[in-house]
Amino acid sequence: MTRTFDILSKVGDEQAFRQEIRDWLAAAMPRNWRVEWQGLENETLKPKMIAWLEERRKVGLATPHWPKEWGGPGLPFGYQIIVYEELTRADAPELHMYMVSLFHTPATLFEHGSAAQKERYLSGITQGTDIWCQGFSEPGAGSDLAALRTSARREGDHYVVNGQKIWSSGAINAQYCLLLARTEQNVKSKHEGISYFIMDMQAPGVEVRPIRSITGEQEFCEIFMDDVKIPVENLIGEEGNGWNIAQSTLSAERGLLIFGGTERLARSFERDRVDGKDSWMRDPQLRREYAAFHAELQVIRLLIRKLLKELEASPDKASSNLSTFIKLSWGPFLQRYTEFLVRAEGLEAHKWKAPIPATAHTSRIKFSDFLKSFAWTIAGGSNEIMRNIIAERYLGLPR
Amino acid sequence: MPDSIDLDLLDESFAEMLGAEWRRERSVAYAQSGNLIAEDLWSQMAGLGWTALTVPEQYGGLGLGIDAASRLHAALGAVSAPVPMLGTTMAAALIAHAGSDSQRAAWLPALADGSMRVGFAQPSGAKLNFEDTSVNGIAADVLDAPSATHFVLSGRREGKSSWIVLAADSPGVTVEVHPLNDTSRTLGSVTLSQVALAEDAVILSADDRRVTDLLEHWGCIALASDSLGIGEAVLDLTIEYLKVREQFGKVIGSFQALKHRVADHKTALVGARELLSHVALLDPGDHAGLIDALSAKAHITRVAAEVARDCIQLHGGVGFTAEFQPHVFLKRAKLNEALYLTRNEALDRVADLLEAA
User: Fold this and answer.
1) How many beta-carbon contacts under 8 Å exist across A and B?
2) What average pLDDT does this structure show over B60-73?
3) Are A387 and B351 inside 8 Å of each other by CB?
C-alpha cells in the first residue's frame, strides 16, 4: 500500500513536517542501498540516482535548499535544516551526480543568467532530467584558472569552441556543461576576455574521457572540444565577464555544498565512537584525539549555519567571505579526521573494499573516505588558493 | 536593564577604554615591572561598572550573563590586561547561584564595586576538608592569589562539593607566590593553618553537581574568551608588521610562505569566534552545552597558543625581544591552556560526556 506524502504543506508545524519526512523516507528510500550500490559508477549508478531524485522530486525535495526564486520549495531556514537532518538521520543516499546541477548551476544562473536561461535550465534540474558538469580547469590552468586557453570564436549566431577541460566531475553522465572559454585573446589582464557558456554535451565535437582517481573510481573526466558550436543565447551574462560570474559558481561550491556533508559527518562521528568503543576508544590518546575533533566539527557546522542564514536573508547573494573560511576549515578537517580513523582502525583499514558512492566521505570504508578527502583539499580552489584569497583579499597582504 | 544593553556596544566600549589605557608600550613595560596587578586599570574598570557585569542587579550589578562576561574577557585578553577579572566572574557566578541571601548581601556588592578581588581555586585542585570549625591544608596554584583580598577555595562537607570564602588577611592564612612566565597574571599557593571557619563562610548547595557544572561552564568560556582575544590581537599586530617590514627589497607580507600561515590562523580564529558565541548562549545545565564549553576551552586555548607561537616566528628576530609584544601574548595564551583544566583533562571530560550522551 502506498500513501501520498505532502511534506511542504506541513511548513508551519515543525513536528508534523519532520514526521512526514520520516514517513516518506521510510517508504521511498532505496532499500539496502549501501550494499546494493557498492562498487557502482557511471552507467550502472546513473539509473539509481535518477530514480532517487525522482522520489525526492515527487515530494518537492529535489532541491530542498533552493529559494522559490530558483524554482525550489523556498523553505524557511529552520525547515531546510530539518530536511537535511532527516535525510542524514535516515542515511539517505547523496545525490552526488547532481552536485553541479543542485549547487553550481543555480548559483550561477540565478545571479547572472537571463530570464529565458533560468526558465529553461533550472526547471530541467527540478524536473530531474538534467545532469550538469563544470568545465573550468584545463591541463595548463588549474590553480591558475584564468590562464585557461579554450577558445570561443563568435561566428554569426553561434560561438565555435576549441580546447580541452579536465577534472570535470561526472562529465560522462552530463547533458550540460558550465563552460569557461576565452572570447578575447589580446587582453591586458588574463582575467579579462573570458566568457561563460552553457554547452550541450551532446553537441558534435564534444568528446569525454573518464580519469581513474586514487580511489579507483572514475568520477573525473577530460572533455575535448573540437569546433563545437554553442548558440549565442547560451552565453551567460555579458561576453568577457566570465571570470566574475565564475566566482559565484565557486562560492556555492565552497559554502552550501558542504552543508549536507557536515551533517552526515556529524552523524558518522557518533557512530565511529560507538564502533570503536571496544577497540581504539579504549586507548587514552586516541580517545582524546577523537574528542578534540568535536570542537572542529562544531565550528564548521556553526559557520555553515551562519552562511545559510545570510543566504536566507538575501538569496541573490551567493558569494560571501564565509564560504572561503568554510572551505579552508572543512577540507583539512575532513582529511585529518578520516586519516585519524585509518590510524585508529589499524591494519583492518588497509584491506581493500570497493568504494560506496553517494556517501559523501561517510562510506565508513575508512581508507576510501580518507582518499576521497583530497577532493575537498584540492578541487574547487585548493587549500593554497583559499589561503591566497584570505591573505590577499581579506587581510590586505600584498601580492 | 539587561534587556537594554547591546552587547556589541559593550564590546566597543571595552575596546575603546582598553585601547586608550592599555597600549602596547604599557603592556610591554608592565611585563618587566614586577607588579602584581595594574591597580589603576582595575580602578577604572570598577568605576565603569565592568566588575559589576554579572552581579545581579539587586546587589549593585548589571545582572548580565556569561555571554556578556565572554565579551569582557575577550577584550581583556586582547590587551593582555593584568587584572584579576577571572576571580570576579567565577566568584559572582558561585555566590549568585549557590550563596545564601546573607552571603550574597555580604559579598556581591563588594565584587561589583571592585573592592573585593578574588583568588579562585583551580576547579581541578585537591579538595579541602570543611567539616570542622577550623580548616587546615593547602590550596595549591590559586590564580591571582597574590593580589587577592579574598580567596574562594573548594572542598567537601557532608559528602558534597562546597566552597569557602576567606579574607586573605584572616589569621592562619599565608600565600606562597609562584612567579609566572605570564606576568599579566599571578599565582600563589594558599596555606591554611588552623584557620577559623565561620559558619557563614561556607557555601553549600543542595545541588552541588549543578553548581560544579555551572562553574566549569563559566570557567571554560571565560578562559576561551581571553584566549580568543589574545589570538585575534596578536594576529592583527603581526599582519600590521608583515605589511611594513621589508627584506630582499620587498614587504615580507608578500611572501606566500608567510601569507599561508597567516590565512590558516585567521581561519582558525574565525571558527573559534563562532564556536565561542554559540557556547556563550547555551544553558550551563545542558549536557550538550557542557560538552561544547569544554570543547571550546580545549580548542580555543590551543588555537590561540599556536597562533601566538607562530606570530613570534613571523616577526623574526624582533619577535624574540622583550620590546615587542608577541611574547606577552604567547605567555598568557600558554597559561590559559593549562588553567582550570589541562587539554588532556578537558578532552577526557568531553569524551566521557560524549559517551554518556
Assistant:
1) 105
2) 96
3) no
State the CATH architecture for B208-356.
Up-down Bundle (1.20)
Residue with cell string 584545463: A138
Q: Where in chain B is the domain with CATH 1.20.140.10?
A: 208-356
CATH number of the CATH domain containing A233: 2.40.110.10
Regarding whether A225 and A278 lie in a shared domain, the answer is no
Kindly report the average pLDDT of chain A as a whole number. 92
Nearest chain B residue to A272 by CA: give it. Answer: B355
Angstroms from A207 CA to nearest CA on chain B: 38
What local confidence, expressed as pLDDT, does residue B278 receive? 96
Whether A253 is a known active-site residue: answer yes
CATH number for the region B118-204 comes to 2.40.110.10
Residue A108 lies in a domain: no
Q: Which residue has the cell 569566534?
A: B273
Please indicate whether, in this complex, the C-beta atoms of B243 and A397 are within 8 angstroms of each other: yes
Contacts of B253 in chain A (CB under 8 A): 397-398
On chain A, the residues whose CB falls within 8 A of the CB of B298 are: 291-292, 295
Q: Which CATH superfamily is domain B2-112 in?
A: Acyl-CoA dehydrogenase/oxidase, N-terminal domain (1.10.540.10)
Task: Kindly report the pTM of this predicted structure.
Answer: 0.94
In the predicted structure, residue A317 carries a pLDDT above the cut 80: no
**If you measure CA to CA, which chain B residue comes closest to A323?**
B267
Q: For chain B, what is the HEC assignment?
A: CHHHCCHHHHHHHHHHHHHHHCCHHHHHHHHCCCCCCCHHHHHHHHHCCHHHCCCCHHHCCCCCCHHHHHHHHHHHHHHCCCCCHHHHHHHHHHHHHHCCHHHHHHHHHHHHCCCCCEEECCCCCCCEECCCCEEEEEEEEEECHHHCCEEEEEEEECCEEEEEEEECCCCCEEEEECCCCCCCCCEEEEEEEEEECCHHHEEECCCHHHHHHHHHHHHHHHHHHHHHHHHHHHHHHHHHHHHHCEECCEEHHHCHHHHHHHHHHHHHHHHHHHHHHHHCCCCCCCHHHHHHHHHHHHHHHHHHHHHHHHHHHHHHHHHHCCCCCHHHHHHHHHHHHHCCCCHHHHHHHHHHHHHHC
Does B254 sit within 8 Å of A277, measured CB to CB? Answer: no
Top residue of B347, B348, B352, B353 to mutate, by most chain A CBs within 10 Å, is B347
Query: Is B179 a residue whose pLDDT tops 50?
Result: yes
Closest Cβ opposite residue A298 in set B253, B292, B348? B292
d(Cα A364, Cα A354) in Å, to the nearest integer?
11
Residues of A with CB under 8 A from a CB of B: 273, 277, 281, 284, 287-288, 290-292, 294-296, 298-300, 302-303, 306, 325, 328-329, 384, 386-392, 394-399
Boundaries of domain holding A268: 255-394
Query: Residues A305, A371: one domain?
Result: yes
- Could you give the residue range(s) of every CATH 2.40.110.10 domain in chain B? 118-204
Q: Which of A104-118, B49-63, B300-314 has the lowest mean pLDDT?
A: A104-118
Query: Which pLDDT band holds residue A2 (cuts at 50, 70, 90)?
Result: low
SS3 state at A229: strand
For residue A277, which residues of chain B lie inside 8 Å, CB to CB?
355
Q: Are B298 and B351 in contact (CB under 8 A)?
A: no
